[in-house]
Amino acid sequence: MFGLLEGLVEKNKEYIKDGDVANYIPALSKVDKNQLGIAIIYLTKDGYKDYFAGDYTTNFAIESTSKVITLIMAMMDHSPEYVFQKIGTEPSGFPFNSILNMNINNKEVPSNPFINAGAIVVNSLIKGKDSEEKINRILNFTRKLANNDFIDVNEEVYLSEKRTGDINRSLGYYLKGKNVISGDVEDILDAYFKQCSISVCALDLAKIGSVLANKGVCPWNNKKLIPEDICTITKSIMVTCGLYDESGSFAVHIGVPAKSGVGGGILATVPNKMGIGIYGPSLDSKGNSVAGIKLLQELSKTLDLNIFE
Ligand code: DON
């Protein structure tokens, strides 16, 4: 398996040139785009085995991949029924930060929890008296899911997100104006910018994916962190909405629940089999890791991971 992963990383580096780092967030535009790495946490009868290759320990900004974690928390803090009164479960077909995701002519709630408008609503639902309490809860949960106490917010990325986050600000105020969120918009956005700035590596994402694959139970200590129904809902939304307006082709060609982020991360989870974390900061036009997607596509074919087969 190590040989397979090393070969796939080397081969798929050729696609790095077809994309670029996210340059709308200044701190992300400084990242070296020539990186690619993968980690796998493979579920076994009595625990797990880990496999990795390339830049799998390099830290990067979690960005939209954090939306998986906050969705789980909001459902656990309330209930799935409550959360999905405030956001839809439909893929939108529009870019992740588009105001069109608001379903303006329909129900006037964001299409799904993974586009920015939906993720801002999700963040507003997380319990905590202010952004500090919320981000501490998000960090603690992320640390447990990834079995890594060192996970923290990258201050430079956070300040960069906050300084340049005007589209998110406009989405936040629109949602407040439409009574979809309540409370202090700036404080909710502050917690959202911080959740996107959490620093993780591909191995952390693979571990989070393995908990989802294992129906909410950590394969390393058998602790149940997520109720099973919430795991199932999360994986379903990852399949339909995880890669924004590229979700359809991703499902057709790869067939694995996954969530991307503009930091270059992909968190994938193969039910009952494995968690996969990928890092490749060169992005395609939709904001997804260009070489990472190719790598995952080849891995899915080689290991027969497509859940629809
Ligand atoms: O809100 C934003 O635009 C970023 N902090 C996160 C966007 C993102 O990762 C979209 N994913 N591909």
> Secondary-structure element order, as H and E?
HHEEEHHHHEHHHEHHHEEEH
Number of contiguous helices: 13
Using the alpha-carbon principal axes, give the shape: globular
CATH topology: Beta-lactamase
Residue ranges: pLDDT <50 for 5 or more in a row? none
Strand content: 5-15%
Alpha-carbon distance between the two ends: 22 Å
Order of strands across the main sheet = 2-1-8-7-6
As a whole number of angstroms, the C-alpha radius of gyration is 18 Å
Within CATH, the superfamily carries the name DD-peptidase/beta-lactamase superfamily
Query: Helical percent range?
Result: 40-55%
* Estimated structural class: alpha+beta
Multimerization status = single chain
The level 1 CATH classification is Alpha Beta
CATH architecture: 3-Layer(aba) Sandwich
The largest sheet is: 5 strands, antiparallel
Average residue-wise pLDDT: 94
Task: Tally the beta strands.
Answer: 8
- Tell me the number of structural domains: 1
